[in-house]
Design goal:
187 residues; alpha+beta; five-stranded mixed beta sheet
């Protein structure tokens, strides 16, 4: 049904889509340019986000309704997969769900410093550069797009633990790291 809900309820729709691993569809909804989407709000001049998708849906709406700012939540938490596992981001999960998005980068503030992530999602390779702040530790999950794959951390082959559609690398230390998962040709 597309964006059949209000902007305020969209967060729950997106939580469900990412939980069901429907990230391609979620990305299409997030970036749609129809009248029921955030691009339409930009077109009609809202200051942050509006209470409804368009004035035709609610004539007396506010044009500054932060509870409908779902993209500010979805981009870091779902597309980049940044989730605190322990209080104050002492331990972090990074589990991107990029869908069809070919590349993206983010600098996400936390109380311990910024988490920086940059990924490329093309064809037979998903690569990601991560910069973790001091006094943190992270579990990194890379999207498992292939049945047979090679997994690399900082240029070295590593083993990960498969979890549904991701491959987990546990206990990554602070600092800068590169990760890559690429399709391995079967013989």
């Amino acid at each position: 049904k597309g964006m059949g809900c209000s902007p305020i309820m969209a967060r729950y729709l997106f939580d469900a889509l990412y939980e069901l691993e429907a990230e391609d569809y979620a990305l299409r909804l997030l970036t749609n340019e129809l009248d029921r989407g955030w691009m339409n709000m930009i077109r009609f001049g809202t200051t942050i986000v509006s209470e409804a998708w368009d004035i035709k849906y609610k004539r007396n709406m506010t044009w500054n309704q932060p509870t409908g700012a779902t993209p500010a939540y979805i981009i870091p938490r779902k597309i980049f997969g940044i989730e605190p596992l322990e209080p104050s981001f002492r331990k972090i999960l990074i589990k991107p769900q990029p869908g069809d998005l070919e590349q993206a980068e983010i600098k996400h503030p936390t109380i311990r410093g910024s988490i920086e992530i940059k990924f490329q999602n093309r064809g037979d390779i998903f690569s990601m550069d991560v910069k973790l702040p001091a006094n943190t530790q992270s579990d990194i999950c890379l999207p498992k797009k292939f049945r047979e794959y090679s997994l690399f951390k900082d240029g070295e082959t590593v083993k990960g633990r498969e979890q549904k559609n991701h491959v987990l690398i546990k206990n990554v230390s602070p600092g800068e790291h590169s990760f890559e998962i690429k399709k391995e040709e079967s013989l």
